[in-house]
Amino acid sequence: MNYILLTGGAGYIGSHTALALLRAGYQVISFDNYSNSSATALKRVEKLAGGNIICLSGDIRDEAALSAVFRQYPVAAVIHFAGLKAVGESTEQPLHYYDNNVGGTITLCRVMREFNVKKLVFSSSATVYGDAKTVPIDETAPRSATNPYGQSKLMIEHILADLVNAEPDWGITLLRYFNPVGADSSGQIGEDPNGIPNNLMPFISQVAVGKRDKLNIFGNDYPTADGTGVRDYIHVVDLAAGHLKALQYLENHQGIEAINLGTGTGYSVLEMVNAFVRVNQVEVPYQIAPRRPGDIASCFARPDKALKLLGWQAEKTLADMVRDSWHWQRQNPNGYAENK
Ligand code: NAD
Ligand code: UD1
Fold this sequence. Notes:
- This protein is of the alpha/beta class.
- The protein has 11 helices and 14 strands.
- It binds nicotinamide-adenine-dinucleotide and uridine-diphosphate-N-acetylglucosamine (UD1).
- Uridine-diphosphate-N-acetylglucosamine (UD1) binds at residues 87, 125, 127, 149-150, 179, 198-200, 203, 215-218, 229, 231, 269, 292, 294-295.
- The site of nicotinamide-adenine-dinucleotide (NAD) has 27 residues, from helix 1, helix 5 and strand 5.
């Protein structure tokens, strides 16, 4: 398996995975419409790895454009990152989200089948567990969704399971990411959210760098140790390594497997803020604000299946996560844009 196609390869997780793949000797093809990313990310990956990426601009809903990629290159497997991921926006623009995420995935699978490429790693999310009744969460936990973004991930999981059921020669892994944070330790690539960040870590980083006044901590009355929400933050470099393991697994496995990619440890919002301040020696002013609608108290993975099937487990520490997030933010206060 040498040529690996990354849909959404220029994005946050895609760019880190592209780096890991290049360093492992794979030929990387990125197919991205840059709706939420910059080609600069891939240029920097090439520099870091000292190798070339085949960078293609295109939309996964464009069947002809996708077919041209498969016609031109001997793609062995696809890692499918392309998707829209903003929860609030998905509630405002549900058709756009379903069209892009669900429609795009169907088109991708159709083209893959046409070219007899049947190995797929899909970016799913812990969001498919909805408001889980118990933690840690294993892969057999009931699934539900509370917004169109989550629904789109859930629908895709069902579609891919039906596909494998009908055509058992597919090999598919549904990687359910918990909360990706951090950046490559070079500080050259990282998460570059548009506008006001929704997620905790980019928000903390932007407060620390002076782009925002203070962090709002959404609720301190949850049934957790300090009352703030608990999540399973996972370093994006660990996450990228998980994709390489998933590819290796697919080399000799068919069928479909859902696999959690998390650390198994939950940290509260206050623990994250305190770690960021302590490790980076910066200030992060905050205030307690009302709960954010739709948030849950606690969510963390049971990561045993990833270890058992893929031989993968997270290795980075909380200090690595907050240090690398800050390193990226400090070096790139405006992300990839020069004048954002
Ligand atoms: P991202 O927005 O940085 O990357 C997604 C990439 O897909 C972007 O480069 C975007 O331009 C591209 N894209 C979107 N629609 C496209 C289309 N129709 N055709 C071609 N390219 C398209 O997001 P990310 O954080 O790297 O997430 C990657 C995947 O992982 C997404 O599917 C996301 O839903 C999923 N995920 C992310 C998180 C997270 O917190 N970052 C958590 C769980 C799951
Ligand atoms: C959110 C999404 C989820 C998505 C995940 C990863 C919602 C409701 N859920 O999950 O679908 O899969 O991101 O992209 O948006 N927090 C603050 N202040 C902030 C931001 C966050 O206190 O400014 C708190 C939240 O209340 C939560 C924790 O920090 O307790 C993590 O929040 P976030 O990074 O948004 O991730 P999730 O809520 O887990």
